[in-house]
Design goal:
The chain has 731 residues and is α+β, with helices and mostly antiparallel strands. Helix content is 20%, strand content 25%. The longest helix has 19 residues, at 363-381.
Length: 731
């Protein structure tokens, strides 16, 4: 095994040297204004690194001497290295760098132990401590990997832990509460739209009592190791410890940071549990599930293989099909689950779950893969709840709407993907802003008094610009739109990650350019019901002791919010689904952590299992029926179902069947179709389970009967002739 010792000469100006963005870099961090923290044992100045810096095209030319030790043989090599110009770094004292304080790093850094849980909130706020904080909003409880700040700096929800500027020896401390095998650290800088702050190097210390501390040591020298940290605010940087340590407490001690900035960081700790045979400490919560399912992250090939296995295990209730391809040619696979897969049964509603619209939000993808396994297994066992669900409903599960983005995120790994990498499709398009904006033409028509007489309040057509060949529409978006138009979906949920809340339409604010504004649909009551059902049966959302994920506490709203009142999203799939089809769709933000570690999937499944099932069952809420021709008893397709007092209609499927989601109450419902007299009846929705039957028989108008007779070459009956004459006389 080759070991590298790189020591940098300390003269002004000194320059940082990096071995790569993976975090496997060696640090000689300084700048013209650089100072470094004093160490307990000052090391002699080193002359083993000779740096000559120039500046050409934004790069500095450095001649670096590398000392390579192999089998006690010392070899001196000289090479020329070009590195980009780096921002100046600030720390606390004069520069002192020596070979003894450089860090022996493995050739490849990969997480071994799982995360302790700073990002996922398994580590509570009172387990975090710090030497100082600039404000409460920059306290140690904010030093969590990927935590996001609010819009205002200086509020209670800032984007990192930041030590006071006068703090000479800053540190961030985590209490694991049990003896723990610490193996590595992941760090980020401060999340802020106003400031740039990040730590560029740090030391690590450990303790069992928070009083006596020892440091992480360099293997070759035995001196305190200095770990390279960040060069930008957002990219996670992993450092594995030279020697894993067993302790209860761990401290990160920033040594240098961006010049002009502050000592600010966000972190995750990699740690494995340690056995406690004597029971000296409280029992560590075990993240388990009673379901024997495949709890791991699946890339594209593994996902396809798993879906095939479920189909082979339950061939009578499953069908795997593709709705299209991604920009890179990966198929968008759907798992259909029903007692009659492959066909629409009259009177049976269609529901869907969509996940992975943002490729780095991986939990929804895994939950749908777990759900299809669970439904298959429980159906074979004869579980009555699952059996009824699959015999009375046709379920479609799309686990990965953006497979290209997911593959990017998957390659980075759950802890190193950061907040945004893999979010967009391969073209750089955010799919949740890529659907046609139907809100604006509807609202303009409403303002002009054209709705619903001239402009319908439902099934709005695609705008002309959106259908042009050069329109910026992702292939994934086009595939989903065709899917929506092909199947008469009634209910849907779009699974996201990064928060714990359910948001419902409208997602776009009605006031142009408003960042946020309450913008309800005519079906506000239904959407609040649907959102509350999911939030109310989700274990994590219902935990009274949970803290907010980032900068908003949604628990005070019952963990639901109108999408536009949160932040405006033009071109969202939720709004498009509501205005272009019959389908009511909400967005479920499943977890604070967009890409949870595999060892957290069991708990996340338990958090969401009942909510996923209960939400599907809400398709039975409201009224349902068939609109038929009175004479022939044939179902009438595209008949309009209107409810008095709700300015949004739905239409019948090709067999004449329909479903209208409504909350309990009394309603006046009208069915109408071209060529028929409209019919109206009262329908009462109760709290009892199951849709209330509300069927209609429509009579053809005389004109329609005449058209059909003339088209068939038949004579006009006398009664119809007399009615037509009376109508002409009235006119």
């Amino acid at each position: 095994m080759w070991g590298l010792l790189l020591a940098l000469a300390t003269f002004a100006p000194a320059v940082g040297v990096s071995l790569g963005a993976s975090g496997a870099s060696v640090l000689g961090l300084a700048s013209p204004a650089t100072t470094e923290a004093p160490v307990s044992t000052p090391a002699p100045r080193s002359s083993q690194a000779e740096l000559s810096a120039g500046n050409k095209n934004g790069t500095s030319e450095q001649h670096v001497r590398i000392r390579v030790i192999k089998k006690k043989k010392i070899i001196m090599k000289k090479r020329k290295k070009l590195t980009p110009s780096r921002p100046p770094v600030t720390a606390r004292a004069s520069v002192t760098t020596s070979p003894a304080r450089t860090l022996d790093l493995p050739e490849k850094q990969e997480p071994d132990c799982p995360p302790l849980g700073l990002e996922s909130l398994r580590v509570s706020d009172n387990q975090l401590d710090a030497s100082s904080s600039q404000s409460f909003g920059l306290g140690p409880h904010r030093g969590r990997l990927n935590i996001q700040s609010g819009l205002e700096d200086g509020d209670l929800f800032d984007g990192a832990w930041c030590a006071e500027r006068q703090d000479a020896e800053p540190w961030l401390q985590v209490d694991a509460r049990h003896p723990t095998h610490f193996s590595g650290i992941i760090t980020q800088g401060r999340n802020s739209i106003w400031r740039y702050d990040w730590v560029t190097s740090y030391k690590v210390q450990f303790s069992n009592d928070s009083l006596t501390w020892w440091g992480s040591k360099n293997r070759s020298s035995g001196m305190d190791a200095v770990f390279p940290a960040n060069s930008d605010p957002e990219t996670p940087v992993l450092n594995l410890l030279p020697e894993p340590q067993v302790a209860r407490f761990i401290r990160l001690l920033p040594q240098t940071w961006l010049q002009g900035g502050a000592s600010c960081l966000r972190a995750e700790i990699l740690a494995c549990p340690v056995s406690d045979p004597n029971g000296l400490f409280p029992e560590v919560p075990v993240l388990e599930s009673s379901d024997t399912l495949d709890f791991r992250h699946h890339d594209y090939k593994a996902m396809r293989k798993l879906m095939k296995q479920v189909n082979e295990q339950c061939p009578n209730i499953t069908r795997v099909y593709s709705i299209g391809k991604s920009h890179q040619g990966l198929k968008l696979y759907v798992m259909e689950m029903s007692d009659q897969p492959g066909e629409h049964e009259l009177g049976e509603p269609e529901v869907r779950y969509v996940a992975g619209m943002h490729g780095n939000e991986a939990l929804g993808r895994e939950l749908l893969l777990l759900l299809m396994q669970f439904l298959c297994r429980e159906f074979l066992r004869g579980d009555p709840r699952v059996t009824r669900l699959l015999t009375e409903t046709r379920i479609h599960l799309l686990p990965s709407m953006n497979p290209d983005g997911y593959e990017t995120a998957f390659r980075r790994g759950s802890e190193l993907v950061g907040w945004a990498e893999g979010r967009w499709n391969h073209q750089g398009i955010d799919l949740n802003h890529n659907f046609a904006d139907l809100n604006t033409p509807l609202w303009e028509a409403e303002d002009d008094g054209l709705v619903p007489d001239t402009v319908p309040n439902h099934h709005l057509p695609l705008p002309t610009y959106y259908t042009l060949p050069n329109a910026t529409v992702a292939p994934e978006t086009r595939a989903v739109i065709k899917w929506m138009e092909r199947i008469p979906f009634v209910l849907s949920a779009n699974l996201h990650g990064g928060e714990l809340v359910v948001s419902y339409p409208f997602d776009m604010t009605r006031t142009p350019w408003a960042a946020r504004e309450l913008t309800p649909t005519p079906d506000e009551a239904v959407f609040r019901w649907l959102s509350t059902v999911y939030a109310g049966t989700n274990w994590a959302m219902q935990d009274p002791d949970r803290r907010p994920c980032h900068s908003q506490d949604f628990s005070s709203y019952g963990n639901i919010i109108n999408g536009a009142d949160w932040h405006t999203v033009p071109g969202s799939m939720n709004d498009f689904s509501y205005l272009h089809t019959n389908c009511f769709e909400v967005t479920v933000e499943l977890s604070c952590d967009k890409f949870p570690h595999e060892n957290e999937l069991r708990q996340e499944w338990e958090n969401n299992k009942d909510a996923l099932l209960t939400y599907l069952e809400q398709v039975r809420m409201g009224i349902a029926g068939v609109v038929r021709d009175k004479d022939t008893e044939i179902g009438i397709a595209d008949a309009v179902i209107a409810v008095d007092g709700i300015n949004h209609d739905v239409t019948t499927a090709w067999g004449g069947d329909y479903w209208r989601l409504l909350t309990p109450g009394d309603y006046v419902v009208t069915a109408s179709a071209e060529g028929y007299h409209a019919a109206t009846r009262n329908c009462r929705v109760t709290f009892e389970e199951g849709p209330v039957p509300c069927n209609f028989h429509l009579t053809k108008t005389p004109k329609q009967r005449l058209r059909e007779l003339l088209a068939a070459g038949a004579k006009v009956p006398p009664d119809l002739r007399r009615r037509l004459e009376r109508l002409r006389g009235q006119n």
